[in-house]
Known about the structure:
52% of the residues lie in helices and 5% in strands. Helix 8 runs parallel beside helix 11 (175-190). The protein has a three-stranded parallel β-sheet. The chain has helices spanning 29-47, 59-69, 75-81, 89-98, 104-108, 112-121, 128-132, 137-149, 154-159, 161-169, 175-190, 192-201, 217-221; strands at residues 9-12, 53-57, 205-208. Strand 1 (9-12), helix 1 and strand 2 (53-57) form a beta-alpha-beta unit. The protein is mostly helical.
Amino acid sequence: xxxxxxxxxxxxxxxxxxxxxxxxxxxxxxxxxxxxxxxxxxxxxxxxxxxxxxxxxxxxxxxxxxxxxxxxxxxxxxxxxxxxxxxxxxxxxxxxxxxxxxxxxxxxxxxxxxxxxxxxxxxxxxxxxxxxxxxxxxxxxxxxxxxxxxxxxxxxxxxxxxxxxxxxxxxxxxxxxxxxxxxxxxxxxxxxxxxxxxxxxxxxxxxxxxxxxxxxxxxxxxxxxxxxxxxxxxxxxxxxx
Length: 241
């Protein structure tokens, strides 16, 4: 018999999505992956204190998590929070083009109401403008909920009876119920960093980090190597010549 020395390393990384000039944030991935993958992985470790691991937390991810706790939002969250009967034409088209951003077989078809909305949308068949005529206020509100609900880790429903009841209801939520759920989502997101600190403080997890934006190593060596993949890419002037 030989001893097996195995190191488990989880790499938690998200690019820096916010536009610091406009103040907007076009991408929801820090928030959505935060309440599913990053919260969930930490919770699984918390339930198995004998299991040890290393987790690499990229600074660009941590900063964005903190921005949400300071009141920041992304376009997906902004449209999710709008009253279902108060969406502009642009917001409606955004919703119909971006609120099914999950694997259909894994995260849409298992849920009857979400699948009904998915089929009504006709992605790849109709434009958002054409599909909008088929969506009622009730459809919009249910879609606002489901597009966020499938990004909550299963453990959250085991530990939170109110959250489980919300999912079990499955449709016909009120605006008040929707806003409660989105607030609960942000609470879960706010637990991500404290959970990792707790695991590190009790010696179960070793935390590591990388340069702020987690650049690819060859680019650290020579940024001109970017032209191997993107021949026309614009590079900083001081690298030219």
